[in-house]
Design brief:
alpha+beta, five-stranded antiparallel β-sheet, 5 helices, 12 strands, 28% strand
């Protein structure tokens, strides 16, 4: 399984994903689930969960279309809505042997797409295996896919329309760490990308292990502070 996060703030977007694809007792595999396209007038980050074969087939088609330049591709899409539609069509194509979308689709993949095209607004989209797509609600400007139940509570508490880009990035790592600690099917390294509004390139793109300083300092301090606060709780009457 996997866990992926996309957060849109007024200052930019943050996307993060884990890299675990299999977690048996004696067989742990990793594979990056993030694709970045940072060329010309557009910066695009894509993360994915679901069937790995479908996800990687979609990524390969995206790369092939850009290279061939003969059909619709990330360069030719006029806006992020068209990008979402393009990726939706690719996931339908690669998730069904006959290219037919059905409600019983079991080989589908889900994608989060974020970034900006010069002169346009920051965008964040979720593309479903059936090919349709949505934006996040204005009141909750984030999207999560995969094993969401462990990392979502911290996002619900911290991520608001006014959250800073730095806090969004820190929160994404804490959300990832919470999921890693509770779900063995999600594991490091963590890919994280940060794009600042109206910049020409991604501001931050790293593959982090849990021992890396950027990851360790934030997540360890979070754990320590949680325990400190817990120790300050008032006692029940029956404890006295």
């Amino acid at each position: 399984m996997t866990y992926c996060i996309g957060i849109k703030t007024k200052e930019g977007v943050v996307l993060a994903s884990d890299s675990r694809t299999n977690a048996g007792l004696d067989n742990v595999n990793i594979y990056s689930k993030m694709l970045t396209y940072d060329v010309g007038d557009r910066s695009i980050v894509i993360v994915t969960s679901g069937n790995l074969a479908t996800s990687q087939a979609v990524f390969k088609s995206i790369e092939k279309d850009v290279k061939d330049n003969n059909s619709l591709n990330l360069n030719k899409c006029k806006d992020f809505e068209q990008i979402a539609s393009y990726i939706g069509k690719l996931t339908i194509k690669h998730s069904s042997p006959d290219g037919v979308n059905t409600d019983s689709l079991v080989l589908g993949a889900t994608f989060i797409i974020g970034g900006q095209i010069k002169g346009q607004d920051l965008e964040l989209y979720l593309v479903y295996p059936q090919g349709n797509f949505i934006r996040p609600a204005d009141s909750k400007p984030y999207l999560v896919i995969g094993e969401v139940k462990y990392g979502k509570p911290i996002l619900d508490r911290v991520i608001t329309p006014d959250v800073s880009l730095g806090d969004a990035a820190r929160c994404s790592l804490i959300s990832m760490d919470s999921t890693l600690k509770s779900d063995l099917t999600v594991g490091p390294p963590i890919d994280i990308a940060v794009f600042k509004k109206d910049e020409k390139k991604l501001s931050y793109l790293k593959c982090l292990n849990t021992s890396d300083e950027d990851y360790r300092k934030i997540c360890n301090q979070w754990s320590d502070k949680v325990l400190q606060v817990f120790d300050t709780f008032p006692k029940f009457d029956w404890e006295k």
